[in-house]
Amino acid sequence: MPRAARGAAGVKSMEVGLKLLRPLIEAGRPLNLKVLAGAAGFAAPKAHRYLVSFINAGLIEKDPDTGRYGFGALAFELGLSALGLLDYNKLARKTLAELEREAGQSACLVVWCNQGPTVAAVESNPLHGSVFVAMRIGSVLPMLRSASGRIFLAFLPAEAISAVLATERKATRMSTAEVDGIIKETRRRGYSTSKDATIPGITAISAPVFDHDGRLVYALTCFGPTASLDPATKRHVLHVLQTKAGDLSARLGFHAQREAG
User: Is the overall model pTM greater than 0.85, yes or no?
Assistant: First the structure.
């Protein structure tokens, strides 16, 4: 429960009825009464009563041809208004600070600029000392060799990265098959790793953050001394990283199930 609501009296029937909205959000399409009620854990007659009220308020609409329930005009207005109020950078920086604290590793937020993957914010772990001076805001990372860069390689449209990719391929002499292999593996795993890409002795792990349109907006990255990232520590860091990246994506309106469908 949100902190502001603890101990405060609310309208219980409203809290109960709003549970019907979650299945619609996750499905991303209209649902019939039986499916919608079952997903929310309601008996059909009880769900129907709430839906009638939501229809009257403009929150839900019922298709007269199919009988399925979907979001109404008010829901779309609320969604657009919420998106307009989102401060992407504020949410991302908050997530970055949480990531550093919970993973116990330094972390950075990387965005795509004309020159390539660019560090937008850094949270240095106190235990790492001054070894990360080279990881500064504004640093441009290699796309083919860095963990953050491989996220953009795998999840940005080909036309957005073509110029940078051509330059790096020429410099590294990496074949098309090798590049395709990196893309395929990063997409399969949903994250990327690198060792000694930007700083000797440093390992990095990066995960993608998507917005409501399914577009990649950030690479969220943890990095630390390779010697300190034993298998158990690395698993913990990866778990925290993927959880934080997924949570931030959800806050930005991304729904993985809908995109996969």
Answer: no
